[in-house]
């Protein structure tokens, strides 16, 4: 796999080639990834996989016409052909008065912040095999577990680089380590399955295989013999593992491109209190060892910590160059970029601040409710905020989590759900979106 310096040099070469071919402006992004993973099933080696990928993409502008193209061919001849094709394509593209590069004064300058994204540790296949075996064995050792879908361990390294014709040229490297297990409990038609996984930038920050395995096994066994429940409006409590999805829907609706298309349920709600005034949602792109940390965005704009929701209200939309120009807004450092295509928008290391009560206290006054541990289906309308998902979890009776439930649907509207949301105090910073246990009153449960 290429290193950061090589990736950056290729990007700079490609931008220079495009300008020599007639482009008025250009940017190039390179991404490389190398990963190894080992999977075990029933104590036997099931799969060893190693993959490497390297791609470079070029976006060129001829006036207000633009085109993008990408390749995995880093040879000088291949890059020259790529630049020539991109400029030819741009000359025949429709004009887009909002398209362009980020101004140089908005792009990151000075030294890159040390975000500690790249671990120097290298896991060999034998170490990954031992970890995969340990995570599966821990899961299978839980009483009630009857079969296994497998345990796995993986390690990866990545490189990202961006160069623009405005003079920006930066790159950085990262690493990742993960463990996962999926097992089955019960027999025949009563079987239930569940999983657990953890990821970290540094191996030293990853929890033990035994902890991940035990969680997978315990979750599967806890789901045995589920029942349905009557249809009615109830308080619903979301466990942290899935509660982050609600914030994910919020981030999608805060995307300036969605606002510009008038395709967001948050349209014209900038000044409204969406949450209780105590709710704060923060973004920390510069968090050391963060799963989504980055020093600059997909257009070279410096990333900065910010509050996304303050006092229960939005603080603004998440922009890239095109959407900022359409809406007359400033750049916020949220452009996202693959190796091809125009930039999108994404946030980095988002979390909702913890509340003031424990999960037990949050549920204490619930006479009848639902504790949701799994969601499925894609029933979320980003334009209206209507929310309907299949769910499994546990019945809450008199403040206690009791029998498992399945074959139910939960429904509401995200605007109403946000206003009724109360967070617990069990926030853990282990994911890209971190949220404590959440309680939302008044949602509809459709069951038997």
Attribute tags:
448 residues; alpha+beta; PmbA/TldD fold; 6-stranded antiparallel β-sheet; 5-stranded mixed barrel; 9 helices; 19 strands; 22% helix; PmbA; Metalloprtase-TldD/E_C
Describe the model.
The structure is a single chain. By secondary structure, the chain is α+β, with helices and mostly antiparallel strands. It folds into two domains: 4-221, PmbA/TldD superfamily (PmbA/TldD fold, 2-Layer Sandwich); 226-448, no CATH class. Helix content is 22%, strand content 37%. It has helices at 4-20, 76-91, 125-140, 209-222, 240-253, 256-260, 321-327, 359-363, 414-419, and strands at residues 25-41, 44-62, 65-71, 145-164, 169-185, 192-200, 232-238, 281-283, 306-310, 313-314, 335-336, 344-345, 350-352, 368-380, 386-397, 400-413, 421-423, 433-434, 438-446. The strands form four sheets. Strands 3-2-1-4-5-6 form a six-stranded antiparallel sheet. Strands 7-14-15-16-19 form a five-stranded mixed barrel. A five-stranded mixed sheet has the order 10-9-8-13-18, with helices on one face. The longest helix has 17 residues, at 4-20. It starts with a helix and ends with a strand. The mean pLDDT is 96.
